[in-house]
Backbone:
Protein backbone atom coordinates (compact mmCIF):
# COMPACT_ATOMS: atom_id res chain seq x y z
CA UNK A 1 0.00 0.00 0.00
CA UNK A 2 1.34 3.40 -0.99
CA UNK A 3 2.22 5.86 1.75
CA UNK A 4 0.41 8.87 0.29
CA UNK A 5 1.48 11.26 3.03
CA UNK A 6 5.17 11.36 2.02
CA UNK A 7 6.05 13.10 -1.24
CA UNK A 8 9.49 13.77 -2.69
CA UNK A 9 9.75 16.67 -5.19
CA UNK A 10 12.73 16.75 -7.56
CA UNK A 11 14.01 19.98 -9.13
CA UNK A 12 17.09 20.30 -11.32
CA UNK A 13 17.48 24.04 -11.79
CA UNK A 14 18.09 24.98 -15.43
CA UNK A 15 16.60 28.47 -15.58
CA UNK A 16 17.96 30.38 -12.56
CA UNK A 17 14.61 31.00 -10.90
CA UNK A 18 11.88 29.63 -13.16
CA UNK A 19 12.19 25.95 -12.25
CA UNK A 20 12.65 26.40 -8.52
CA UNK A 21 9.97 29.08 -8.54
CA UNK A 22 7.36 26.63 -9.78
CA UNK A 23 8.56 23.88 -7.43
CA UNK A 24 8.50 26.16 -4.39
CA UNK A 25 5.06 27.40 -5.38
CA UNK A 26 3.79 23.83 -5.81
CA UNK A 27 5.15 22.76 -2.43
CA UNK A 28 3.46 25.75 -0.80
CA UNK A 29 0.14 24.97 -2.49
CA UNK A 30 0.25 21.29 -1.51
CA UNK A 31 1.02 22.18 2.10
CA UNK A 32 -1.70 24.83 2.21
CA UNK A 33 -4.24 22.21 1.16
CA UNK A 34 -2.87 19.39 3.30
CA UNK A 35 -0.55 20.58 6.12
CA UNK A 36 0.09 17.03 7.36
CA UNK A 37 2.02 16.11 4.19
CA UNK A 38 5.68 15.20 4.70
CA UNK A 39 7.48 16.89 1.82
CA UNK A 40 11.09 16.32 0.82
CA UNK A 41 12.46 18.74 -1.79
CA UNK A 42 15.59 17.69 -3.69
CA UNK A 43 17.09 20.75 -5.39
CA UNK A 44 20.22 21.09 -7.53
CA UNK A 45 20.83 24.81 -6.95
CA UNK A 46 20.19 25.89 -3.39
CA UNK A 47 21.47 29.41 -4.14
CA UNK A 48 18.47 29.93 -6.43
CA UNK A 49 16.17 28.46 -3.80
CA UNK A 50 17.66 30.83 -1.22
CA UNK A 51 16.74 33.77 -3.49
CA UNK A 52 13.12 32.55 -3.45
CA UNK A 53 13.06 31.77 0.27
CA UNK A 54 15.76 33.42 2.36
CA UNK A 55 15.54 30.80 5.14
CA UNK A 56 17.21 28.24 2.85
CA UNK A 57 20.93 27.81 3.65
CA UNK A 58 22.79 27.12 0.37
CA UNK A 59 25.70 25.56 2.28
CA UNK A 60 23.70 22.78 3.95
CA UNK A 61 23.24 19.45 2.19
CA UNK A 62 20.35 18.53 4.48
CA UNK A 63 18.11 20.96 6.30
CA UNK A 64 14.64 21.54 7.62
CA UNK A 65 12.53 24.34 6.17
CA UNK A 66 9.58 25.66 8.17
CA UNK A 67 6.58 26.69 6.11
CA UNK A 68 3.69 27.88 8.28
CA UNK A 69 3.06 24.97 10.68
CA UNK A 70 4.71 22.35 8.48
CA UNK A 71 8.34 21.26 8.15
CA UNK A 72 9.85 20.23 4.82
CA UNK A 73 13.09 18.30 4.43
CA UNK A 74 15.44 19.95 1.90
CA UNK A 75 18.16 17.82 0.28
CA UNK A 76 20.95 18.89 -2.04
CA UNK A 77 20.66 17.11 -5.40
CA UNK A 78 24.44 16.61 -5.34
CA UNK A 79 24.69 14.66 -2.10
CA UNK A 80 27.87 12.61 -1.81
CA UNK A 81 26.64 9.13 -1.00
CA UNK A 82 28.31 5.78 -0.50
CA UNK A 83 26.37 2.62 0.38
CA UNK A 84 23.27 4.62 1.22
CA UNK A 85 25.12 6.90 3.66
CA UNK A 86 26.48 10.42 3.36
CA UNK A 87 30.26 10.66 3.16
CA UNK A 88 30.23 13.81 5.28
CA UNK A 89 27.89 15.72 7.59
CA UNK A 90 25.75 13.35 9.66
CA UNK A 91 27.54 10.18 8.47
CA UNK A 92 24.92 7.98 10.10
CA UNK A 93 22.14 9.55 8.03
CA UNK A 94 20.31 6.83 6.07
CA UNK A 95 18.95 8.08 2.77
CA UNK A 96 16.59 5.15 2.66
CA UNK A 97 14.78 6.64 5.64
CA UNK A 98 13.67 9.40 3.27
CA UNK A 99 12.72 7.12 0.45
CA UNK A 100 9.25 8.09 -0.73
CA UNK A 101 6.84 6.01 -2.72
CA UNK A 102 5.51 9.17 -4.37
CA UNK A 103 7.98 11.24 -6.39
CA UNK A 104 7.18 14.40 -8.34
CA UNK A 105 9.74 14.70 -11.13
CA UNK A 106 9.51 18.28 -12.34
CA UNK A 107 10.28 19.44 -15.89
CA UNK A 108 11.80 16.16 -17.11
CA UNK A 109 14.63 16.66 -14.64
CA UNK A 110 15.47 12.99 -14.17
CA UNK A 111 16.72 11.75 -10.81
CA UNK A 112 19.96 12.32 -8.87
CA UNK A 113 22.43 9.43 -9.01
CA UNK A 114 21.98 8.49 -5.35
CA UNK A 115 18.20 8.22 -5.76
CA UNK A 116 18.60 6.27 -9.00
CA UNK A 117 20.83 3.82 -7.14
CA UNK A 118 18.17 3.31 -4.47
CA UNK A 119 15.21 2.90 -6.82
CA UNK A 120 16.87 0.58 -9.31
CA UNK A 121 18.86 -1.57 -6.93
CA UNK A 122 18.04 -5.28 -7.54
CA UNK A 123 16.76 -5.74 -3.99
CA UNK A 124 14.46 -2.66 -4.06
CA UNK A 125 10.98 -4.06 -4.55
CA UNK A 126 8.65 -1.37 -3.16
CA UNK A 127 6.08 0.17 -5.50
CA UNK A 128 7.04 3.75 -6.38
CA UNK A 129 4.86 6.12 -8.42
CA UNK A 130 6.75 8.84 -10.27
CA UNK A 131 4.54 11.73 -11.41
CA UNK A 132 6.21 13.90 -14.04
CA UNK A 133 5.05 17.49 -13.65
CA UNK A 134 5.75 18.85 -17.12
CA UNK A 135 6.25 22.32 -18.55
CA UNK A 136 3.30 24.68 -18.88
CA UNK A 137 2.01 25.08 -22.43
CA UNK A 138 -1.22 26.11 -24.11
CA UNK A 139 -0.59 23.66 -26.95
CA UNK A 140 -3.06 20.82 -27.57
CA UNK A 141 -0.57 18.15 -26.58
CA UNK A 142 -1.00 19.17 -22.93
CA UNK A 143 -4.55 17.78 -23.09
CA UNK A 144 -3.35 14.63 -24.83
CA UNK A 145 -0.41 13.87 -22.54
CA UNK A 146 -2.18 14.57 -19.23
CA UNK A 147 -2.30 11.34 -17.17
CA UNK A 148 -0.56 9.40 -19.92
CA UNK A 149 1.40 6.47 -18.50
CA UNK A 150 5.07 5.99 -19.25
CA UNK A 151 7.52 3.18 -18.58
CA UNK A 152 10.73 2.76 -16.59
CA UNK A 153 13.21 -0.11 -16.57
CA UNK A 154 11.58 -1.77 -13.54
CA UNK A 155 7.95 -2.81 -13.23
CA UNK A 156 7.66 -1.59 -9.63
CA UNK A 157 8.79 1.93 -10.59
CA UNK A 158 5.77 3.43 -12.36
CA UNK A 159 5.56 6.76 -14.16
CA UNK A 160 2.78 9.04 -15.39
CA UNK A 161 2.60 12.52 -16.96
CA UNK A 162 0.78 15.31 -15.13
CA UNK A 163 0.37 18.36 -17.35
CA UNK A 164 -0.21 21.92 -16.16
CA UNK A 165 -2.37 23.80 -18.62
CA UNK A 166 -5.11 26.21 -19.57
CA UNK A 167 -8.00 23.78 -20.07
CA UNK A 168 -10.14 21.53 -17.89
CA UNK A 169 -8.51 18.52 -19.58
CA UNK A 170 -5.15 19.33 -17.94
CA UNK A 171 -4.05 19.70 -14.33
CA UNK A 172 -4.66 23.45 -14.47
CA UNK A 173 -2.47 26.10 -12.81
CA UNK A 174 -1.05 26.29 -9.28
CA UNK A 175 -3.19 28.52 -7.08
CA UNK A 176 -1.70 29.68 -3.78
CA UNK A 177 -3.43 31.02 -0.68
CA UNK A 178 -1.85 34.42 -1.28
CA UNK A 179 -3.69 34.79 -4.61
CA UNK A 180 -5.30 38.23 -4.28
CA UNK A 181 -7.13 39.92 -7.11
CA UNK A 182 -7.56 43.64 -7.65
CA UNK A 183 -11.33 43.28 -7.84
CA UNK A 184 -12.48 41.94 -4.47
CA UNK A 185 -15.71 40.35 -5.77
CA UNK A 186 -13.88 38.74 -8.68
CA UNK A 187 -11.13 37.56 -6.34
CA UNK A 188 -13.63 36.07 -3.89
CA UNK A 189 -15.27 34.11 -6.70
CA UNK A 190 -11.91 32.80 -7.87
CA UNK A 191 -10.75 31.77 -4.42
CA UNK A 192 -14.01 29.94 -3.73
CA UNK A 193 -13.45 27.93 -6.91
CA UNK A 194 -9.93 27.11 -5.68
CA UNK A 195 -11.16 25.96 -2.26
CA UNK A 196 -9.50 28.91 -0.49
CA UNK A 197 -12.54 30.98 0.41
CA UNK A 198 -11.33 31.92 3.89
CA UNK A 199 -8.30 33.82 2.62
CA UNK A 200 -8.46 37.57 3.32
CA UNK A 201 -8.77 39.55 0.09
CA UNK A 202 -7.63 42.98 1.20
CA UNK A 203 -4.68 44.10 -0.86
CA UNK A 204 -1.91 45.57 1.18
CA UNK A 205 1.72 46.47 0.68
CA UNK A 206 4.08 43.97 2.30
CA UNK A 207 6.38 45.35 5.05
CA UNK A 208 9.26 45.40 2.59
CA UNK A 209 7.37 47.56 0.12
CA UNK A 210 5.77 49.68 2.79
CA UNK A 211 9.32 50.64 3.75
CA UNK A 212 10.31 51.19 0.10
CA UNK A 213 7.29 53.40 -0.47
CA UNK A 214 8.54 55.79 2.19
CA UNK A 215 11.84 56.22 0.36
CA UNK A 216 10.58 56.10 -3.21
CA UNK A 217 8.30 58.77 -4.71
CA UNK A 218 7.55 56.40 -7.58
CA UNK A 219 6.25 53.67 -5.29
CA UNK A 220 4.37 56.28 -3.31
CA UNK A 221 2.60 57.33 -6.52
CA UNK A 222 1.28 53.85 -7.32
CA UNK A 223 -2.30 55.07 -6.92
CA UNK A 224 -1.73 58.02 -9.27
CA UNK A 225 0.44 56.55 -12.02
CA UNK A 226 -0.49 54.03 -14.67
CA UNK A 227 1.80 51.29 -13.39
CA UNK A 228 3.48 48.71 -15.61
CA UNK A 229 5.54 45.78 -14.36
CA UNK A 230 8.35 44.74 -16.74
CA UNK A 231 10.06 41.33 -16.66
CA UNK A 232 11.58 40.05 -19.88
CA UNK A 233 14.52 38.33 -21.53
CA UNK A 234 17.66 40.29 -22.30
CA UNK A 235 16.75 42.06 -25.57
CA UNK A 236 16.79 45.54 -27.03
CA UNK A 237 13.83 47.47 -25.62
CA UNK A 238 13.77 50.58 -27.82
CA UNK A 239 10.47 49.70 -29.48
CA UNK A 240 8.83 48.91 -26.15
CA UNK A 241 9.96 52.22 -24.67
CA UNK A 242 8.62 54.03 -27.73
CA UNK A 243 5.26 52.23 -27.51
CA UNK A 244 4.88 53.15 -23.85
CA UNK A 245 6.01 56.75 -24.45
CA UNK A 246 3.54 57.14 -27.34
CA UNK A 247 0.81 55.80 -25.07
CA UNK A 248 1.60 58.36 -22.37
CA UNK A 249 1.67 61.17 -24.95
CA UNK A 250 -1.72 60.20 -26.39
CA UNK A 251 -3.26 60.00 -22.91
CA UNK A 252 -1.93 63.47 -22.09
CA UNK A 253 -3.91 64.90 -24.99
CA UNK A 254 -7.01 64.57 -22.80
CA UNK A 255 -5.36 64.48 -19.36
CA UNK A 256 -2.23 66.62 -19.02
CA UNK A 257 -1.39 65.06 -15.64
CA UNK A 258 -1.46 61.46 -16.90
CA UNK A 259 1.73 59.67 -15.86
CA UNK A 260 3.25 56.25 -16.53
CA UNK A 261 5.68 54.45 -14.25
CA UNK A 262 7.41 51.24 -15.34
CA UNK A 263 8.62 48.99 -12.52
CA UNK A 264 11.64 47.03 -13.70
CA UNK A 265 12.09 43.55 -12.25
CA UNK A 266 15.52 42.73 -10.91
CA UNK A 267 17.51 40.80 -13.49
CA UNK A 268 19.11 40.95 -16.93
CA UNK A 269 16.23 42.75 -18.62
CA UNK A 270 16.57 45.80 -16.37
CA UNK A 271 19.72 47.26 -17.99
CA UNK A 272 18.52 46.99 -21.65
CA UNK A 273 15.24 48.68 -20.78
CA UNK A 274 16.94 51.45 -18.83
CA UNK A 275 19.46 51.96 -21.63
CA UNK A 276 16.74 52.32 -24.27
CA UNK A 277 14.76 54.58 -21.95
CA UNK A 278 17.74 56.93 -21.54
CA UNK A 279 18.43 57.02 -25.29
CA UNK A 280 14.84 58.12 -25.91
CA UNK A 281 15.13 60.95 -23.38
CA UNK A 282 13.70 59.25 -20.26
CA UNK A 283 10.12 59.87 -21.48
CA UNK A 284 8.35 58.40 -18.43
CA UNK A 285 9.16 57.31 -14.91
CA UNK A 286 10.89 54.05 -14.11
CA UNK A 287 11.55 52.32 -10.79
CA UNK A 288 14.12 49.53 -10.42
CA UNK A 289 12.84 46.88 -8.03
CA UNK A 290 14.88 44.76 -5.63
CA UNK A 291 14.74 40.98 -6.00
CA UNK A 292 11.55 39.85 -4.28
CA UNK A 293 10.70 36.79 -2.28
CA UNK A 294 8.02 34.76 -4.05
CA UNK A 295 5.14 35.85 -1.84
CA UNK A 296 6.15 39.50 -2.26
CA UNK A 297 6.28 39.15 -6.04
CA UNK A 298 2.82 37.57 -6.11
CA UNK A 299 1.40 40.45 -4.12
CA UNK A 300 3.27 43.21 -5.91
CA UNK A 301 2.09 42.39 -9.41
CA UNK A 302 -1.56 42.60 -8.34
CA UNK A 303 -0.94 46.30 -7.66
CA UNK A 304 -0.07 46.99 -11.31
CA UNK A 305 -2.28 48.15 -14.18
CA UNK A 306 -0.42 46.20 -16.86
CA UNK A 307 2.13 43.36 -16.85
CA UNK A 308 5.02 42.33 -19.09
CA UNK A 309 6.07 38.80 -18.10
CA UNK A 310 8.32 36.03 -19.41
CA UNK A 311 8.70 32.30 -18.90
CA UNK A 312 6.33 29.84 -17.26
CA UNK A 313 5.70 30.81 -13.65
CA UNK A 314 5.25 34.53 -14.35
CA UNK A 315 2.87 33.74 -17.22
CA UNK A 316 0.68 31.69 -14.89
CA UNK A 317 0.74 34.40 -12.22
CA UNK A 318 -0.13 37.13 -14.74
CA UNK A 319 -2.98 35.12 -16.24
CA UNK A 320 -4.45 34.51 -12.78
CA UNK A 321 -4.41 38.18 -11.75
CA UNK A 322 -7.07 39.13 -14.29
CA UNK A 323 -4.91 42.10 -15.34
CA UNK A 324 -3.93 42.95 -18.93
CA UNK A 325 -0.59 41.30 -19.68
CA UNK A 326 1.92 40.57 -22.42
CA UNK A 327 3.94 37.35 -22.45
CA UNK A 328 7.42 36.89 -23.87
CA UNK A 329 8.19 33.26 -24.73
CA UNK A 330 11.69 31.79 -24.52
CA UNK A 331 13.48 32.00 -27.87
CA UNK A 332 13.67 28.65 -29.69
CA UNK A 333 15.16 27.36 -32.92
CA UNK A 334 13.34 28.25 -36.15
CA UNK A 335 11.15 30.74 -34.26
CA UNK A 336 9.21 27.82 -32.74
CA UNK A 337 8.22 29.98 -29.77
CA UNK A 338 5.62 31.54 -32.07
CA UNK A 339 3.76 28.21 -32.05
CA UNK A 340 3.51 28.46 -28.27
CA UNK A 341 2.42 32.10 -28.45
CA UNK A 342 -0.25 31.29 -31.03
CA UNK A 343 -1.55 28.46 -28.82
CA UNK A 344 -1.88 30.83 -25.87
CA UNK A 345 -3.64 33.43 -28.00
CA UNK A 346 -6.17 30.83 -29.14
CA UNK A 347 -6.95 30.02 -25.50
CA UNK A 348 -7.49 33.73 -24.82
CA UNK A 349 -9.41 34.67 -27.98
CA UNK A 350 -12.94 33.59 -26.89
CA UNK A 351 -12.97 36.12 -24.03
CA UNK A 352 -12.39 39.24 -26.13
CA UNK A 353 -14.16 41.30 -28.75
CA UNK A 354 -12.44 40.42 -32.03
CA UNK A 355 -11.48 43.99 -32.89
CA UNK A 356 -9.91 44.54 -29.46
CA UNK A 357 -8.20 41.16 -29.62
CA UNK A 358 -6.52 42.03 -32.92
CA UNK A 359 -4.20 44.51 -31.19
CA UNK A 360 -3.39 41.95 -28.49
CA UNK A 361 -2.63 39.32 -31.11
CA UNK A 362 -0.60 41.69 -33.27
CA UNK A 363 1.64 42.77 -30.43
CA UNK A 364 2.10 39.28 -28.93
CA UNK A 365 3.20 37.94 -32.31
CA UNK A 366 5.41 40.93 -33.13
CA UNK A 367 7.02 40.93 -29.65
CA UNK A 368 7.87 37.22 -29.89
CA UNK A 369 9.03 37.15 -33.51
CA UNK A 370 12.82 37.18 -33.19
CA UNK A 371 13.33 37.19 -36.98
CA UNK A 372 11.42 40.43 -37.59
CA UNK A 373 11.41 43.77 -35.76
CA UNK A 374 8.88 44.38 -33.00
CA UNK A 375 6.23 46.99 -33.79
CA UNK A 376 5.35 49.71 -31.30
CA UNK A 377 1.89 50.68 -32.53
CA UNK A 378 0.01 47.52 -31.40
CA UNK A 379 1.49 47.97 -27.91
CA UNK A 380 0.31 51.58 -27.76
CA UNK A 381 -3.17 50.50 -28.86
CA UNK A 382 -3.23 47.70 -26.31
CA UNK A 383 -2.27 50.08 -23.51
CA UNK A 384 -4.89 52.61 -24.61
CA UNK A 385 -7.53 49.86 -24.64
CA UNK A 386 -6.54 48.99 -21.06
CA UNK A 387 -7.10 52.55 -19.81
CA UNK A 388 -10.45 52.65 -21.61
CA UNK A 389 -11.42 49.27 -20.07
CA UNK A 390 -11.92 47.83 -23.56
CA UNK A 391 -9.81 44.72 -22.92
CA UNK A 392 -9.83 44.44 -19.14
CA UNK A 393 -13.02 42.37 -18.92
CA UNK A 394 -11.56 39.89 -21.39
CA UNK A 395 -8.47 39.36 -19.23
CA UNK A 396 -10.67 38.97 -16.15
CA UNK A 397 -12.92 36.47 -17.89
CA UNK A 398 -9.90 34.48 -19.06
CA UNK A 399 -8.55 34.45 -15.51
CA UNK A 400 -11.88 33.34 -14.08
CA UNK A 401 -11.99 30.44 -16.53
CA UNK A 402 -8.50 29.35 -15.42
CA UNK A 403 -9.66 29.39 -11.81
CA UNK A 404 -12.74 27.37 -12.71
CA UNK A 405 -10.47 24.76 -14.29
CA UNK A 406 -9.23 24.12 -10.75
CA UNK A 407 -6.07 24.23 -8.68
CA UNK A 408 -3.28 22.00 -9.99
CA UNK A 409 -2.27 21.17 -6.42
CA UNK A 410 -5.84 20.04 -5.61
CA UNK A 411 -6.05 17.96 -8.80
CA UNK A 412 -2.69 16.39 -7.99
CA UNK A 413 -3.77 15.42 -4.47
CA UNK A 414 -7.03 13.99 -5.80
CA UNK A 415 -5.04 11.91 -8.30
CA UNK A 416 -2.73 10.67 -5.54
CA UNK A 417 -5.69 9.79 -3.32
CA UNK A 418 -7.11 7.61 -6.10
CA UNK A 419 -3.84 5.75 -6.75
CA UNK A 420 -3.76 2.02 -6.17
CA UNK A 421 -0.47 0.26 -5.35
Residues:
Amino acid sequence: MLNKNKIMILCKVVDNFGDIGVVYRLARALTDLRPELELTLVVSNLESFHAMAKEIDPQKQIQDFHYKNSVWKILDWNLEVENGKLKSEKPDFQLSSFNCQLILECFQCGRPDWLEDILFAPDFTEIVQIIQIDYLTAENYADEFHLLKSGTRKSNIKKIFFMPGFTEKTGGLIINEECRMQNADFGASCLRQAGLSDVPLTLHCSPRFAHSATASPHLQSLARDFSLFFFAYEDDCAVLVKGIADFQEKMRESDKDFSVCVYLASGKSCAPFEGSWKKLGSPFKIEKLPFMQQEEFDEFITRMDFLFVRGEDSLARAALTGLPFVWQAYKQDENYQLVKVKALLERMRPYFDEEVFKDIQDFYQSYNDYENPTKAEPLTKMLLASTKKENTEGFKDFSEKLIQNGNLARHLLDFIDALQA
Q: What stands out?
A: The chain is about 40% helix and 15% strand.
